[in-house]
Amino acid sequence: MASRMGQWGNDLYTGRRSYDIVGHRKRWFVVAAALVLLSSALLISRGLNLGIAFRGGSEFTVPSVTTTDQQPALDAVASIEGAEPPRVSVVGTDTIRVQTSSLTDVQTSSLKQALATAYGVDVVDVDSSFVGPQWGQDVTSKALRALVIFLVLVSLVLTVYFRDWRMAAAGLVALVHDVILTVGVYAAVGWEVTPATVIGFLTILGYSLYDTVVVFDKVRENVRGVVKQKRFTYSEMANLALNQTLVRSINTSIVAVLPVAAILFIGAFLLGAGTLRDIALALFVGILVGTFSSVFLATPLLTWMKDQDEEFAAHNATVLAARAAAPQGQESRVRVGALVPGEHLGNRAQPRRPSRTPGRRP
Amino acid sequence: MRTLVTLSVLVTGLMAVLLAGTRWSDATITPGLALDLEGGTEIILHPVAEGGQQVTPDAIKEAIDIIRSRVDASGVAEAEITSQGRDNIVVALPGEPDEATLALVRESAQMVFRPVLVVAAPTPTASATPTATPTATPTAAPAADPTAAPAADATATPTAEPAASPAADVTPTDPSDLAWLTDALLAEFEALDCTDPANLSGGAARMGDPAKAIVTCDESGTAKYALGPVEVRGDMMTGASSGLESLPGGGLGTKWITTVSFDGAGTVAFRDATTRLKDLESPRDQFGIVLDGLVVSAPQVHEIIPTGEAIISGTFTRDTAATLARQLNFGALPLTFDVQSEAQISATLGSEQLQRGMLAGLIGLILVGVYSLAQYRALGLVTIMSLITAAVLAYLAITTLSWLQGYRLSLPGVAALIVAIGITADSFIVYFERIKDELREGRTLTAAIDQGWARAQRTILASDAVSFLAAVVLYFLAVGGVRGFAFTLGLTTLIDLLVVFMFTHPVMVLISRHRFFADGHPFSGLDPGLLGARSRYVGRGRVATATEPADRRREPMPAAADAGQIGTERLTIAERKAAQRRAAEADQARIEGEDA
Q1: Number of helices and strands (H, E) in chain B?
Q2: In this structure, are residues A70 and A88 in contact, taking their beta carbons and an 8 Å threshold?
């Protein structure tokens, strides 16, 4: 596996094998736009299923239980139709407290019954009440304010670092795309949004930018002085950078997604650790989408913006004109690759006297 | 390698400090866990408004905000504060909070108006030099000026002290009498340090005896005050609002003001107080508005206010005016909290559930190890070792911080740690891929590491800087669970840098001296041949051609000589010539064959 991957990476690096990602940028833009629209539509039509922490919910207390295992309560809530995974805790020594999202009267009474059966207490002893949101409005508003300030700062930092505002802009577009898609998946799945999920979304924000910066750093290296030569366009050099960092992108996303996927699939589905599934899903989707966007969205968007610029449009024209005027007119494709050094040929590379006697080799 | 030694000294040092801490202090070798992972203490408070008034939902909200700011200021990580039912407040604190923290939560927050006796800079002074604040902004309306920042005034005019000493044993005649400043109180005033956050946490203990003078700090820690006995209580207010000042002509001005109104008793008390204060010298013409033990504003009295409607103006923005109005409103309806119950609660995330989740995460980590071994061969070991180093560092840092700073690891923190695996591993991947790129260009391993490091370093620094920026901004601007997450993210980003610079790179340099790696053993993950480098300089004027077969070495092929497979490629002159030569040789061989 490694050798084939190594060979493949090698081909990608030298440009012997190259995926024309930038060339098909319209296709990626359409895909990304469609996904964003779909997510937005889902968000608007279905909305997010905000959890008890945001909206408040119902609280049940089961006093004088003989066992303080939490599993019976989880099973009892799971048996109620339409109930989200609850927060179960032990209060004092022998009281079980179950907090769920807001329930209807029918659900409330059947959950009371289920809890009473599960813990073997009388149903009248099971108490229910309403609890308020713990994630108050000020937590949300402060987090949002922090987010806006972060985005402004990060665009400044990226603009200064890359000395190119377009890179910052493309990075931010990719970021927005990632967050909308991740939130959209949440709306589609309909799982409860908990504070942990929100933290997951914030994590995705950081990861998406991080990934984009790594790819852009290679792009910047490749396009340094691109206008001073006439063989390749900016887009072609950027595409080479994408190909050269493709192995990195794949390896990084696999390494990053493996623990998350393990928690999501092995943990949540096989072992039944439902409480971790919300954050795991947000991270899982976010990491995949983040990798996709830094390769297929951010860089193509960057080249598109560059092509709109007069200086680079003129350079593109020069390169294409030079290429058309090249003697070998039959070529359809130009290989863009890293410079590979020639081989040391010893004296065989020297010019030699043509041999006069046929049949005798020098 | 010196850096490796430094790193191991660092790790051992941290461990030693921690062990010493467990031995002689209250440190533990496991990090403190937050409410969602460990459970804690839950207190149910029932707010009671004085005079049996109805407690409004807004007042409950204010009370939750006040409790949250008290708890946050005391350094307890991630307390959960919610309302329950219609008028209960539930406060859940992680672990087993000490008595002081519990008291902080249970206390009521009251507001009083006290006359200012002395104002001084916030730091302790050897001889109390009360700073007068000569601000006399003439205003038409019965307005007052909050001059709560006397620290800016350099002119120290000790107006209070001379008067205080002779009056020490004289019974004060009115609340503004400097005779309240007994020697004991002055000593306390001198010693008070308002730059210490511990003195800014507020609480009922700071409210003091209403009939006596007190010393306290400004809310922002920019000044300290000695205040006379209470003149107007918060519950004598009927309400407060903020808005733009109204001009005498009837229009709206551009200055933001806060308006306070008093009830019957309040109007009388306030009129009497303003009558006396108006003619006093500065700073004794100021009111100290004390909420929850701290001075939130200290307006100067310019006129007698007989109507029970006072206007506080000054350098307000819309937000600060609104904040003051909100604080005054809360003060108008002071709440005391009855503790209804206090009980231990278990973790809200089921413990069995969490263990399963952790098990799954561990499986994921093993998969990461397997993948990097498959992908990078022996280099995968470097990745695994680096990740282990990072994990040890993170564990030590978190445990030390939970001991020294009261940091507690919560589920969001765990999420940050999981994502940190990806970001940390990415640094190595970026680095390794760079080294490979350099090997492909025909460099020796040592040179490739030098060159690759120089380039990878920049990428790693830039991308980590972005992560760190996110962490810092979120930490300083957000509250609650978001802060815990931001803290962990920032910590792991720093650890990532530390590990890459002080472990991975030195280890790479070290192993590059070993023949197994330097010669590019197939299992080292650094085989130049596999990486497609066709030749490399091995010194002494010789060039090694890594894995090219012997016969191909005799007849070298230029970079894209297998152009036959890639037909559309552009041929270089050398490639064309080589092709011609091969064709000619083939002809030659055929001729020779015919000759034979």
Answers
A1: 17, 17
A2: yes
Contact B235, B50 (CB under 8 A): yes
Inter-chain residue contact B39 with A11, CB threshold 8 Å:
no
Tell me what pLDDT residue B40 has. 78
Q: Could you read off the pLDDT of B79-122 as tens digits, one per residue?
A: 777 777 667 788 887 777 777 777 777 776 778 888 888 888 87
Distance from C-alpha of B120 to C-alpha of A150, rounded to nearest angstrom: 38
Within 10 Å of residue A86's Cβ, how many Cβ atoms?
A: 29
Using a CB-CB cut-off of 8 Å, the residues of chain A touching B352 are 70-71
Instruction: Name the residue among B350, B422, B531 with its Cβ closest to that of A252.
Output: B422
The per-residue b/e assignment along B73-95, b for 16 or more CB within 10 angstroms, e otherwise, is ebebbbbbbbbbeebbbbbbbbb
- Give the highest mean pLDDT range of A262-271, A302-311, B303-312, B530-539: A302-311
Q: Is A274 within 8 Å of B353 when comparing Cβ atoms?
A: yes
State the residue for tokens 């030694």: B5
Cα(A244)–Cα(A225) distance, integer angstroms: 18
What's the token pair of residue A94? 């022998």
- Listed as own residue / partner, the contacts of B302-306 with beta carbons closer than 8 Å and 24 or more positions apart are B302/B138, B302/B139, B302/B142, B302/B143, B302/B144, B302/B145, B302/B278, B303/B142, B303/B143, B303/B274, B303/B278, B304/B142, B304/B271, B304/B274, B304/B275, B304/B278, B305/B142, B305/B270, B305/B271, B305/B274, B306/B267, B306/B271
Query: In whole angstroms, what separates CA A18 from the centre of its chain?
Result: 23
Q: pLDDT of A184-203, one tens digit each?
A: 998 888 887 877 788 788 88
Question: Are B204 and B289 in contact, with CB atoms under 8 Å apart?
Answer: no
Nearest CB to B442; choose among A139, A195, A341: A341
- B49 pLDDT higher than 80: no
Rounded to whole angstroms, how far apart are CA atoms A171 and B92?
Answer: 40
Secondary structure of A125-194 in the HEC alphabet?
HCEEEEECCCCCHHHHHHHHHHHHHHHHHHHHHHHHHHCCHHHHHHHHHHHHHHHHHHHHHHHHHCCEEC
| pTM (two decimals) | 0.66
| Cross-chain residue pair A256–B360, CB shorter than 8 Å | no
The closest of B22, B546, B89 to B341, measured between CA atoms, is B89
* ipTM score of complex: 0.77
Question: For residue B534, what pLDDT is reported?
Answer: 55
Question: pLDDT band at B546, cuts 50/70/90?
Answer: very low
Q: Which of A6, A74, A256 lies at the smallest CB-CB distance from B422?
A: A256
Which is it for strands B294-297 and B287-291: parallel, antiparallel or unpaired? antiparallel
What is the Cα A246 distance to its own chain's centre? 15
pLDDT at site B440: 78
Average pLDDT over residues B539-546: 56
Q: For residues B230 and B215, give the distance between their C-alpha atoms in angstroms, rounded to a whole number.
A: 13
Q: Write the pLDDT tens digit of every residue in B151-172.
A: 333 333 334 444 444 444 566 7
Least confident of A230-239, B3-12, B203-212: B203-212
Alpha-carbon distance of A16 to A10, in angstroms, equals 8
Radius of gyration from C-alpha coordinates of chain A? 29
User: Which of B96, B429, B466 is the best residue to mutate to test the A interface, defined by the most A CB atoms within 10 Å of its own CB?
Assistant: B466
Angle at B130 between CA B128 and CA B134, to 5 degrees: 165
CA A312 to chain centre: 30
pLDDT, residue A38, reads: 93
Where helices occur in chain A by DSSP H, the ranges are 2-14, 25-45, 52-55, 71-78, 105-119, 137-162, 165-189, 195-222, 234-244, 246-261, 277-292, 299-308, 310-324
Q: In the structure encoding, which two tokens stand for residue B166, read together? A: 């002779």
- If we measure between CA atoms, which residue out of B297, B300, B291, B294 comes closest to residue B321? B297
**DSSP label of B132:** P
